[in-house]
Recover the amino acids of this structure.
């Protein structure tokens, strides 16, 4: 069994006194405690053992519901309001994009409304051919 040697020794003395194998005085001398302390500890031990033997509902115990402080609740309400407002704005933007796409295109930042001017192409200079003796 798991537990310290001291706890195991106390349990052994408690059991031996309950079984009548030794007297309370002998157990108290071995443990170095008085009789009243011995009876108190043995009664606590027996009460804890009895509580472990009580019938319980099957399965895991349910987890307690998390509690939220009033400040946290208020912060969450504000966050919900903000998110609902953002969702409504996105819904309106989507409706505008479907019904008036040309207006939305003009309002987009970074997009130019006029086409960019193209650079005029420069023609490459004609290369002169090497002259040969026969062509002269």
């Amino acid at each position: 069994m798991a537990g310290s040697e001291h706890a195991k020794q106390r349990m052994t003395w408690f059991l031996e006194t309950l079984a009548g194998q030794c007297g309370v005085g002998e157990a108290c001398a071995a443990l170095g405690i008085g009789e009243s302390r011995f009876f108190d500890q043995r009664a606590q031990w027996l009460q804890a053992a009895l509580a472990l033997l009580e019938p319980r509902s099957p399965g895991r115990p349910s987890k307690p519901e998390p509690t939220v402080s009033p400040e946290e609740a208020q912060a969450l309400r504000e966050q919900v309001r903000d998110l609902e407002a953002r969702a409504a704005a996105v819904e309106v933007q989507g409706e505008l994009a479907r019904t008036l796409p040309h207006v939305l295109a003009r309002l987009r930042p970074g997009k130019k409304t006029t086409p960019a001017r193209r650079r005029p192409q420069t023609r490459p200079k004609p290369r002169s051919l090497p002259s040969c003796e026969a062509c002269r």
Summary: The chain has a mean pLDDT of 84. Residues 70-99 form the longest helix (30 residues). Residues 5-52 form one domain. DSSP finds five helices and no strands in the chain.
